[in-house]
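Notes from the 1:1 (GR / supervisor)

We went over the backlog. Supervisor wanted to see one worked example end to end before approving the batch request, so GR pasted a single chain during the call. The sequence is below; no edits were made to it. Supervisor asked that the structure be written out right there so they could see what the output format looks like.
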Amino acid sequence: MSQDRAIFRVAERLRPPCNLVPEDAELFGTSMIGCSTGCDVQILRDVEVLGRGPIRARDGQYLVESFVNEDHYRRWRRERGHWRAATERLFQKLVPFDAPAVWITDNWSCGYFHWFCDALPRLEVALREHPAAELTLLLPAKFGRDDYFLESLAPFKLKEVRILKRFERLRCRELLLPSHISRTGNYDSCVMQSLRERFRGHSERVGGGRVHQRLYISRRLASRRCIDNEKAILPVLADHGFETLVAEQAPWAQQIQLAAAATHLVSNHGAGLTNMMMMATGSSVMEIRERQDRRNNCYFNLANSMGLNYYYLLAPRRDPSEEVHFADLVVDPSTLDAALGQMIADSAQRQSA
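Structure output shown during the call:
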């Protein structure tokens, strides 16, 4: 038997970008209309969890909540994923797990953005239903590959975090399974702001580094979506008081301390912008985005959910034949200079109002 608990149902309407011009309105599409979000927390009895991911119910069915959406679940079945899982079960020893456990991940959760914006919000909601000190979080084997997974869980003060081995198979007597709060790239403000307070409080307790009022997060070490002419824009950023952070070169704890201290953050579309969720309400963020990208509004939506002032700067692809989501961008320094000037002037005006 499972018990469903409706936690909340809300509708949210988003503020347009602070520097929106009419001809760019179509880039943000329906994101400005608003979206519905909600979450249920199920308590499942006697279900199997596997080191490679899917949850198997007592009736033998694999749960859709193990996937980012139903399309991914159906594709997994078309590609005979359930056959592979059944074959693996033949040589996996079934081990009982009697302590209360929680599962929050899907097949996309291993990415930085999806971990913080899709998975951890589900944990935040689950902890409204069960004390953290009594819960064990179960994670698939692949979550052992990066330190930030475990580091980011410290603020939750769970009883235990257990990363399963690749072919490990547990039967959970009681498993909390929070559903997806909304489709990926959309958020519930209350949940996201609760997460922010949790992380900011943790950052203050462990001690901060230097204060950076204005922060630029570089993607120069990434394999895609870099600023092709970054050397040309670094002096412009420096003239406006921005210090550069290359996220891959900084420990995660330092990254959140810097983001929490920033009043202005700039980066091009990518995982680094996820750290805006650590910034105080009323801070400002600028996303450098491909000028024809009408699809990827997850950071515009995130800024709204965190109560941040969102700005954007459009830039063309270095190679027009390359797909939008992978292309490097070329940023005009004078356009960036003007955009940064507007963002900083707007902030000063808000403070004096």
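Supervisor's comment: The chain has two domains: 3-17+39-186, 207-352.
Batch request approved.
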